[in-house]
Amino acid sequence: MDILFAADQAAPVGSGIGAFLPIVLMFGILYFLIFRPQMKQKKVHAKTLVELKKGDKILTRGGVYGKIVEVTGKGDSRLIIDVGGNVKIVVARAYVAGLAETAPENPEDK
Questions:
Q1: Which of 12, 48, 75, 90 lies deepest, with the highest CB count within 10 Å?
Q2: What is the pLDDT of residue 80?
Q3: Please, what's the b/e burial string for 70-103 (b: 16 or more CB within 10 A of its CB; e: otherwise)?
Q4: Comparing C-alpha atoms, which of 7, 103, 108 is closest to residue 59?
Q5: Contact between 69 and 82 (Cβ < 8 Å)
Q6: How far apart are CA 2 and CA 65, in angstroms?
Q7: From CA 50, how far away is CA 92, in angstroms rounded?
Q8: Residue 52: how many CB atoms within 10 A of its CB?
Q9: Which pLDDT belongs to residue 18?
Q10: Of 35 and 101, which is predicted with more confidence?
């Protein structure tokens, strides 16, 4: 009979804070592993876009390498880039992926 009474006694339930601690820890880990590095990367990209100037070699989000020959548009929002062979295209500043450190050499520049 003692066994039946022991089974009826439930284990004490943890406090409210103890129950939410794993969730809080999970959000903390997500913040430091995902959100924070992504915000840093976004700040660096935005700074790079603002600092673009004539003569910089860039890579667009479409995969086009080119050299900035002119900055135009309202608020300098458009870039005219030379992609080689005297071909110039207009690209919105927002669609620049970044600077191209390993841009292919243009044989006409030599």
A1: 48
A2: 95
A3: eeeeeeeeebbbbeeeeeeeebebeebeeebeee
A4: 103
A5: yes
A6: 81
A7: 12
A8: 17
A9: 79
A10: 35
What band does 3 get if pLDDT is binned at 50, 70 and 90?
A: low
- For residue 26, what are the β-bridge partners? none
Phi, psi (deg, nearest 5) at residue 45: -65, -45
Task: Report CA dihedral (37, 42, 45, 47) to the nearest 10 degrees.
Answer: -110
72: amino acid identity, one letter: T
What residues contact residue 45 under an 8 Å CB cut-off, 6+ apart? 98
Instruction: Report DSSP state, residue 103.
Output: P
Q: Whole-angstrom Cα distance, residue 7 to residue 74?
A: 76
One-character DSSP codes across 2-70: HHHHHHHSPPPPPPHHHHHHHHHHHHHHHIIIIIHHHHHHHHHHHHHHHT--TT-EEEETTS-EEEEEE
**Amino acid letter for position 64:** V
